[in-house]
Amino acid sequence: MASKAKSDGGIVETVKTIVYALLIAGVFRTLFFQPFWIPSGSMKDTLLIGDFLFVNKMAYGYSRYSCPFSICPFSGRLLFSEPERGDVVVFRHPVNGSDFIKRLVGLPGDTVQMRNGVLILNGAEVPQTPAGTFEELMEPQGPMGQLPRCENGPVGEGGTCTASRFTETLPGGRTHDILNIDTNGFADNTDVFTVPAGHYFFMGDNRDNSQDSRFGQAVGGVGFVPADHLIGRADRIMFSSAGRSMLYFWTWRSDRFFKAVE
Fold this sequence. Notes:
Blueprint: H1 2-31, E1 33-37, E2 51-56, E3 88-92, E4 99-106, E5 111-115, E6 118-121, E7 124-125, E8 128-137, E9 160-169, E10 175-180, E11 193-194, E12 199-203, E13 225-226, E14 230-240, E15 259-260
Antiparallel strand pairs: 1-2, 2-14, 3-4, 3-14, 4-12, 5-6, 5-11, 6-7, 8-9, 9-10, 12-13, 14-15
């Protein structure tokens, strides 16, 4: 009987340990950092398919989307800190409920337009300077096997896919690289958008391969993103793998480990 009681006590302690571990993990994920895996090429070359990062959830305070499965029992934001133009942000898509990652370019009250592939903020052209050429292999990328878009296309599998790279300088002096594949697409020439109060305007750094605020929600885009849909800021890449699985160690990109997101 003593042996059975000891066994039962061991099971109870094991269950308690698991429960405590899950609670601690849930609190950590809710209040501090959320893991995020880059699934698409919309933020190249800042973020590549297969980059793994932790999202800083303390950066902008908390909303119901801060909790797993959006179960936080409050509306609006708690401890809200205004995001800065140029931040790379993870947010909840206002319609389809998935998590997106893009760069914040338009603040409440801003006007935003694309003209011949150049960003126009509040009527002023945002400077771009040439920064060489981004090159990658034409091959399936990541678990979903996506093929890259190329400025020099069509490119056969195994060939070199290129895109013109520019350094963009936002008002306030923050800089980041963008890629340009085409200057005549819909996303390169848009109407003037006026960002409503309490909303933000996001764009991908891979300007011709991103569903973002330039596209309305009716056509699968993001549109204006409400403040309470912000989840957190991407600060640093922790791990990166170019393969279809992170277990393929020969595809690890060690030069991207612990790389700051700019």
